[in-house]
Design goal:
With 204 residues, the chain is an alpha/beta fold. The protein has helices spanning 2-30, 35-56, 85-93, 112-119, 129-146, 170-178, 190-193, and strands at 76-79, 98-103, 122-124, 149-152, 182-185. A 5-stranded parallel β-sheet has the order 3-2-4-1-5, covered by helices on one side.
């Protein structure tokens, strides 16, 4: 029975993401000439996927310190990363519009990855240092002009046990180049909700 419920949750989640991504892709195609408009238009998609994803994964979400998430103030939001469930939590709580910085492999995620390609957010090739640094430099100039926030995972990859991994240098470079304050978003317990490398949902 538990396996059936788990499968139904995954199917329902994939369906929600697929429908939302298809609708958002239409919007992105219309807004294709403007990167800023494409990024800002994703807010509704993020809320739908975030709220439904948190519910479908069985995540019991408690948010503290939300008063520090001010959509009127651009910032760099640094998030720890332990599970795919982190994505839903971040989309659920993020204030306003922010440019995401993720690894290039995001395109492997069904529906979401393909929509991400059109969204105007940044993909980074971690194996090409010079290219990644140049992309970060361009991003810093872009967010200063557009007055957007940035959200990234400074560890660069998922932690299996919930403990912080060493930070990559991208966070520091972006903070220095943009002058934006760094706001940490700490997610605890997500590695128990959806264990890395599995399709098993356990709740929290």
């Amino acid at each position: 029975m538990a396996l059936l419920i788990n499968a139904l949750r995954l199917l329902a989640g994939l369906t929600v993401v697929g429908i939302a991504a298809a609708l958002q892709t239409v919007v992105l195609l219309v807004l294709l000439p403007s990167r800023v408009a494409r990024i800002r238009s994703c807010v509704f998609f993020e809320r739908v996927v975030g709220v439904s994803g948190v519910w479908l994964t069985g995540t019991r979400l408690t948010v503290t310190g939300a008063e520090h998430l001010d959509p009127r103030r651009p910032a760099i939001y640094a998030v720890n990363h332990t599970s795919i469930a982190d994505l839903f939590v971040v989309l659920r709580v993020m204030p306003g519009s922010a440019v995401g910085v993720v690894k290039k492999e995001i395109v492997r995620y069904p529906f979401f990855g393909q929509m991400y390609l059109l969204s105007g957010h940044l993909r980074v090739d971690r194996g090409q240092h010079a290219t990644a640094v140049a992309a970060m430099h361009d991003l810093a100039a872009f967010v200063r002009r557009a007055r957007l926030s940035i959200i990234l995972t400074p560890e660069g990859t998922r932690s299996r046990d919930g403990r912080l991994l060493p930070f990559k240098k991208g966070l520091v470079h972006l903070a220095l180049q943009t002058g934006l304050p760094v706001v940490p978003l700490v997610i605890t317990g997500a590695h128990r909700v959806w264990e890395k490398g599995t399709l098993k949902l356990t709740g929290a």
